[in-house]
Structures are given as structure tokens and as C-alpha cells.
Amino acid sequence: MKEAMKEDRRVTGYSDLSLRPPAPLTGRELEVLRLVAQGATNAEIADILEISPHAVKSHVIHIFNKLGVSDRTQAAVWAARNALV
User: Fold this and answer.
1) Which of 15, 23, 32, 46 qualifies as a FRET site for 59, CA 20 to 30 Å off?
2) What is the pLDDT of residue 19?
3) Distance from CA of residue 35 to its chain's centroid?
4) How many CB atoms lie within 10 A of CB 55?
5) What angle (nearest 5°) sits at the alpha carbon of residue 63, between those of residues 40 and 35?
6) How far apart are CA 48 and CA 44, in angstroms?
7) Contacts of 56 (CB under 8 A, 6+ apart)
8) What are the structural domains, with CATH classification, of the chain?
9) Burial of 70 by CB count in 10 Å (0-12 exposed, 13-18 middle, 19+ buried)?
10) Are the C-beta atoms of 35 and 44 separated by less than 8 Å?
């Protein structure tokens, strides 16, 4: 069990198993997170959502900060564990 908790901390960035973000994600951030989890690039997300690539980058940074993760893979794992994809 301790090993599973260590694994969870490494993958999600959380110290517990709640998997709740410290700050709630906005509707747009959830849209971006779903697309990130599906493997879309920032340019693809910008085209799909009809927003600028800079806006996508800002949303991705906010998502990482709110989830306590440091990369797209960790964010995608969080999204999958929380049934967003």
C-alpha cells in the first residue's frame, strides 16, 4: 500500500489520494485538459477551441499549477483518473 501511495504522489503530484485539485478548474481549463489528455498539441487545441495559441499556453500553465503537476502526461493521468476522458 505504501508503494502505491508513493506511485500516486509521483504521478499526480499529490500527497494524498483524494485527486482533487487544490483550486477548481474553470470550464475552459477543463476543455483544454480533456484535449491535452487526448494528445492534442497547443496549436491543435487553439484551432479546435478557436482561441490563440498563447491563450492555450496560459490555460495549460494554470492547469498544471492547479493540479500540482509538471507536465502533460501527469495532467493526462489526472484527467483519466477523474473520468474526464
Assistant:
1) 15
2) 63
3) 10
4) 15
5) 20
6) 6
7) 32, 42, 43, 45, 46, 49
8) 2-12+28-81 (1.10.10.10)
9) exposed
10) yes
Axis-axis angle for helices 53-67, 27-37 (nearest 10): 90
Asked if pLDDT for residue 8 goes beyond 80, the answer is no
pLDDT tens, residue by residue, 9-53: 444 444 433 467 778 999 999 999 999 999 999 999 999 999 999
CA 27 to mean position of chain CA atoms: 13
Largest CA distance in the chain: 44
The angle at the Cα of 15, spanning 13 to 20, to the nearest 5 degrees, equals: 70
pLDDT of 84 reads 85
